[in-house]
Write a structure and sequence with these properties.
Keywords: Oxidoreductase, Signal
Family: Belongs to the aldehyde dehydrogenase family.
Strand order of the largest sheet: 13-15-16-11-10-18-19
Strand content: 15-25%
Helix content: 40-55%
Largest sheet: 7 strands, mixed
Number of strands: 22
Number of helices: 19
Organism: Paspalum notatum var. saurae
Protein name: Aldehyde dehydrogenase domain-containing protein
Radius of gyration: 30 Å
Distance between the termini: 75 Å
Pfam families: Aldedh
Shape: globular
């Protein structure tokens, strides 16, 4: 007992110290970010954007999609200007690569503190630029970003430290490890649907892993992206990071193409068509590519579910972020036994949903970010109606105002749908709920896999093992069991898809390490006492018994049984002994002569 008592005291003291460190928060400075121009809400003129390629000039024009009020413009950068931004970032990265994890964690804490203290500002900016409601902005922008920051604070360093691996049988005298080094400049081309999170997501992984980041924001969310950049700049400055470590660039396709040609890795969030062009351009410099493209996620509801709860989740999944659903559910498969009840309850909720300018009243849904998109959504609905579908219900419009053009689209429930309809095959990216029947688990799996996309899925059943079994047979990169999109709130998990949904992963361990040069390292375990030496039979000039030696060595290391390996070992030692004694005998004979 006398021996254990001091150890128990030390363990208790250590636990107490850890508890005190947990209870006492670290000192985190506040940062000042100028938001005066963003908060100014004086009346501005109504802006009607030009459509198609004609809109791509030397300026990116910005406006509120919910009110069409003009917000300003930003330059569309030329290829030479993009290259200059990347060159500045590359210079700063060489300094930042030597930074400590302590400094990088402080950067994250400063960001987290600012986000927590300015949630309303961040959400309002997102709402004004993309048309989403404040609640949707909080769910999709604030919570996901805070979760990523806290995961990096808790585990980021752990997953970037050298990772030791087994050496195998032939290298027992060695030590094997994987080391992770910054790639250099990480480029990202991000979409408009979550302007805050889509900027912070690649930036956080890149900067924490020692890289620089150059991010091209969408031309449909440039105003907000450029404001969020001020937050990043202020936080980097507060920790003494080099200037120009992170850049936000603005423009159209030409700007994005120049970025791909200049960086050390590219992350793209967007459509499959543009993703293919990104790959083609990246092939010229052979840089790694991560593509997070479209989705047509399936939402499967078995007959044994708690229906009222699942219905609420289903509507939220379909209308995620004011119809601007990132990883949102787009195809609903409901068991025939509960189909009518499911449709009835969904219709009741959707009928109560009111659509309107999100900051001018208590609306459930806001505007569509891109003006032409509502026309596309209506065409998908019309195609379904022409092929036999029916509209079960549509939501209502609030007071849109006289300046409303076509930037609003009511949530729409379609029944009697099938896979001949475009709404069940093409990505809608809008508040449409097409609901289809199924009669067996096998049929549901077949229907869900009948898609060119493979991003995510959600499966609901009162029998969790049944839901897991169904989800395991769906060809997609993300699955939620009795929930929707929950995997994205687990930032330790990778995010990405297959097929036309892209490849590669961001988020999680895989996404963090994807920002790194992964280097395999082998070193001597017992240096300098045991060193690598070439066995005599295979030294140059190779002995006539060289191949026989190799055969015995292979059998010694990889023989089927321990007895086979021991037998080969004995013969191997015998051969080496004979080889070593032969030169000695030859030398003795020469001396006698």
């Amino acid at each position: 007992m006398a021996f254990w008592w001091p150890l128990l005291v030390l363990a208790a003291a250590y636990a107490l110290c850890r508890l005190l460190l947990f209870l006492i928060p670290p000192t985190v400075p506040s940062i000042d970010v100028d938001a005066s121009d963003v908060l100014a809400k004086e009346d501005s003129f109504i802006y009607i954007p030009r459509k198609g390629r004609a809109a791509q000039t030397d300026k990116v024009q910005c406006y509120e999609p919910a009110t069409m009020k003009y917000l300003g413009y930003f330059p569309a950068l030329t290829p030479d200007e993009v290259k200059e931004h990347v060159a500045q970032a590359r210079k700063a990265q060489k300094i930042w690569a030597k930074s400590s994890f302590k400094q990088r964690r402080q950067f994250l804490r400063i960001l987290l503190k600012y986000i927590l203290e300015h949630q309303d500002l961040i959400c309002e900016v997102s709402s004004r630029d993309t048309g989403k409601t404040m609640v949707d902005a909080s769910l999709g922008e604030i919570m996901t970003t805070c979760e990523k920051i806290t995961w990096l604070l808790d585990e980021g360093e752990k997953w970037l430290k050298p990772e030791y691996r087994s050496t195998g049988r032939s290298m027992l005298h060695k030590r094997a490890k994987v080391e992770f080094y910054p790639l250099g400049v990480i480029g990202a081309i991000v979409s408009w649907n979550y302007p805050f999170h889509n900027v912070f997501n690649p930036m956080l992984a890149a900067v924490f892993s020692g890289n620089a980041a150059v991010i091209k924001v969408s031309e449909h969310a440039t105003w907000s992206g450029c404001f969020y950049f001020r937050i990043i700049q202020a936080a980097l400055s507060a920790v003494g990071a080099p200037e120009n470590l992170v850049h936000i660039i603005t423009g159209f396709a030409e700007t994005g193409q120049a970025l791909v040609s200049s960086v050390d890795k590219i992350i793209f969030v967007g459509s499959p068509g543009v993703g293919r062009m990104i790959m083609q351009r990246a092939s010229e410099t052979l840089i790694p590519v991560t593509l997070e493209l479209g989705g047509k996620d399936s939402f499967i509801v078995c007959e044994d579910v708690d229906l009222p709860n699942v219905v609420q989740v289903a509507v939220r999944a379909a209308l995620q972020s004011s119809g601007q659903n990132c990883a949102g559910a787009e195809r609903f498969y409901v068991h025939n036994d509960i189909y009518s009840a499911f449709v009835s309850q969904v219709a009741k909720i959707v009928k109560s949903i009111c659509v309107g300018p999100p900051l001018s009243g208590r609306y459930d849904m806001g505007a569509i970010c891109m003006m032409e998109h509502s026309e596309k959504l209506q065409n998908l609905v019309n195609d379904a109606l022409d092929k036999g579908a029916e509209i079960a219900v549509r939501g209502s419009f609030g007071n849109l105002g006289e300046d409303a053009v076509d930037q609003f689209f009511p949530p729409t429930v379609l029944v009697n749908v099938n896979h001949t309809m475009k709404i069940m095959q093409e990505e809608a990216f809008g508040p449409i709920l097409p609901i289809m029947k199924f009669n067996s688990d096998e049929e549901a799996i077949k229907l869900a896999n009948d898609s060119k996309y493979g991003l995510g899925c959600a499966v609901f059943s009162g029998d969790q093992k049944r839901a897991i079994r169904i989800a395991s047979q769906l060809h997609c990169g993300v699955a939620a069991i009795n929930d929707f999109a929950s995997s994205y709130m687990c930032q330790s998990l990778p995010f990405g898809g297959v097929k036309d949904s892209g490849f590669g992963r961001f988020a999680g361990v895989e996404g963090l390490r994807a920002c790194c040069l992964v280097k395999a390292v082998v070193e001597d375990r017992f240096w300098p006492y045991i060193k690598t030496m070439i066995p005599k039979p295979i030294q140059y000039p190779v002995s006539e018994h060289g191949f026989e030696f190799q055969e015995l060595l292979v059998e010694t290391l990889y023989g089927y049984s321990i007895w086979d390996r021991l037998r080969s070992l004995v013969n191997l030692v015998k051969m080496i002994t004979e080889q070593n004694s032969a030169p000695a005998s030859s030398t003795t004979a020469k001396k006698r002569r």
